[in-house]
Batch of 3 targets.
Target 1
Amino acid sequence: MTAGKHHVIIKGVKDGLNFLLDDSCELAAVLDELRHKLESTHDRILTGPIVHVHVRLGRRIVSDEEKEEIRAIIGQKGNLLIQSIESDEPEPLAGTAAPITVLKGMIRSGQTLQHDGNLLYLGDVNPGGTILCTGSIYIMGSLRGMAHAGLDGDDTAIIAASHMRPTQLRIASVISRPPDEWGFQEAFMEYACIKDGHMEIDKLNGMHRLVLA
């Protein structure tokens, strides 16, 4: 057990105990400390009536076998009844959020597709067609119409397309400059995002820098 660092914190709550397990070190070190605390330090809470236990894993993701190991260690004390073993929900990546809806078809001139959330669209948006989303827009096809992502003001949204030659792009309240000013000779595999209050267009293979920033 690392000196000065507690990998297991046991807190009393209204309906029992919360076991908070450190997610920043090896699971084996956490389980060693858990065994130690249950065998010695916390004998005073391990006698008497049934105590409900909720195990919190932080952002650690564990297998079913590892959950069973945690259950076995805590279950050795007969009055501890495990109610849950849970990990925190991971934070969504920039420009993304689950789930992403998949739709397919073709948006023709005069047609508008509006969607609440993130959208993966399998098909083309023709000139005069419009696609509107509150989240990000990913088009596996040609975007030659108008696309507006972050419709409700989300300036972390992204617009990406296999073939990017829109009549207009909008993210939140920011409107792109015309495609002929982007500086690219071809129009394949590009994406748009907001950076420092301005819309930037880049090659799709650079999107990982945005997502991981």
Target 2
Amino acid sequence: MKLSRKNGLRASAIGALVVSGALVLSACGSDNNSEPAKAGGDKTSAAASNIKCDGAKGQLLAAGSSAQKGAMDLWVKNFQAACAGVEINYQGIGSGGGITKFNQGQVALAGSDSALKEEEVAESKKVCAGGTGVNLPMVGGPIAIGYKLEGVDNLILDAPTLAKIFDNKITKWNDEAITKLNPGAKLPDSTIQAFHRSDESGTTQNLGKYFSVAAPADWKYDPKAKSWPAQKGQAASGSSGVASAVKDTEGSIGYFELSFANANKISTVSLNTGASAPVAATSENASKAIAAAKVKGTGNDVALSLDYGTKAEGAYPLILVTYEIACDKGNKAETLPTLKAFLNYTVSDEGQKILSDAGYAPLPAEIAAKVRAIVPTLS
């Protein structure tokens, strides 16, 4: 299956703020045949030839974010092609599941769409002997609001209206709030079928953070919640499950990473952010919001603070950044060389470039530089 469109963004789009080789969020579920297509193609051999194995050997277990599963698949394919005898097993089970496995010592690496909470950091110290779990941003991109509504190709919504839809306070497609935002659109008098994640998810958490900032009067739930906090709506497992449900259900709406919308040919909502024009869910527009990210972590932790409330022209504020979570100290000796070599590759220019053609949002150059400096110090 091929992506239906490419939203490629070159680093020159935001100058020195972004990495020359774009980091990419290629969202992909772990158990659904509607996964986004893999990027890279015949570039694999060339990319693999430049990888430094640096003593990598044996098996490395990793798990977590389904949003980065597609990116992981590409990286793993290239890394294993370059490093004989190495097996990297990444399970896209969701951010919450990945963090749980990491803090139980079952995996050496976890993927998460949100930074570790304080209690999760404290828990990580039990498995990171003499150290702690740290957040290393690796992949970024937009969270798309996908919908299926016959005859409506360009739907515009704002944060308060979306919050009410997902909280079951707006239940009809021809509700006044929606019609005001879409004059001239043929909106039916039918029930909105809103889908959310059934599993713990960093994507859900980032959506909640966006609502809490952009629509605080209409979203009263804990913005840190990874489990769906509202009482109603329909649930599906993983981003792949939500995308499949939206694709198959007339009158539906749901949230998932942009590549799911592209792969499944699902229409996406443009956001009325208060800028002069509605903002579409594209990698270019998401990167304008990601460029405003600030580092809130200290030391070897590169947790980011995202600006979900930006009204900058062309900035799509409903974004996420996916982290790799690893021990800064106390890694198992048998997996440490493979862990470091693999992360050195994923954050390298080469690791980024193989994903840039898929068209996802780059991270600020200064953030990538911080991660590149930290990975070799893991011990």
Target 3
Amino acid sequence: MISFRPMRDSEYPAYLDYFITDYATEISANYGLSGPQALARAKQEIANDLPHGINTPGEVMFCVVNQTPEAESVVGYLWYRPDLASRSAFIKDFYIFAAHQGKGFGKQALHALETELARTGFEQIRLRVAEDNKRAKHVYEGTGFRVTGVNMSKTIKTG
């Protein structure tokens, strides 16, 4: 069974190791930045978004946990921002470790999140997913998410 628990201070460095590398790859692919430029931008953005790490007010940082009768193991991460005024939550990052992908944990986690949010009065979950992230899009669409817009950008050449 999939559940969540707050991310621990001791787990945050491993989260950053995964997130910064993954996000830098996405930035490079989507915005045409070099590897070092994308890495610097990813580091700056995470520092801006989570200035107090897992204790940043208004941000929820969870570990996705698979509980079996034999053991409990962390299989991924979930970071979201609740918006009480609009009764919505925006998923900022959701990741199931590669070794645990394809086992239904992503769908189970999204269902568990939906159940918990609904229980506490939330009415909507929102997120952004990269166009080329087919695996994530499949999981989101398979759990009832639908496209509500399209992000677009253009790099301005200087000089």
